[in-house]
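fyi for ur records
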Amino acid sequence: MLACLESAAAEQVLRADKVPEAVSRAVSQIALPLDTAIAAQDDHYIVTQSNAEAHDQLQNWKDWPNLTGILIGDHAAGKSVMARQFEIDSGGYVVDDAAEMQDDELFHLWNRARQEQKPLLLVSSKPVPAWDVVLPDLKSRLAASLLIEVGPPDEAMIAGLFQKYFGSRGLSISEDALAYLGKRMERSYGDVQLLSQSMDKLAIERKRPITRAIAKEALERHQMTNGEAEPVSKSTHNDEKSNG
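which gave:
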């Protein structure tokens, strides 16, 4: 759970105002915040409006109260990738799944980081009130720490994550498929993962590229599974024919 600095690396990020044009051209060179086995090998991430504030707060760790930050975000929001980059940049301590750590262990680590004058980043998918902290001194320290939140993915982030996933598989996803999903899918990092896997499977089964038709069928299947939509329409396969 506890990670210490082992190496140094330069930061590479893509700012929000450059994402729409650059994602399609340079995505294979940019590590995006998708918490999959593939992305776990990457140390860099893209920055869009969805995580720009969190990125800036991680960069300015020297200004944190008590040099302690709490990084909160949904599952698969890229927290681990961001935390690894922070660890490299700052030389501080990182605790993944901090909500699951025992109170006394977390309290001692907080004291250790303070003694060594190193920043401490606590990472969790749970909001701090849900951590079930009992130790009063730890509660007060957490309350005084900087809360850093990763927001839901915007359209630029969703497009980048899909392209990263398929690029790592040696595949591509069409622009019309990205546009279709960007307008209709839930803004969720977890759904990006699930839909990526579903489209991948459909493309292999059909021996076809990932077009709007594949994206539509994957989305409709996902929505049916989650009780969000009517059954897949017959027009899906007609769309596939028209999209080649």
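The two ends are 48 Å apart (CA to CA). thats all i got for now
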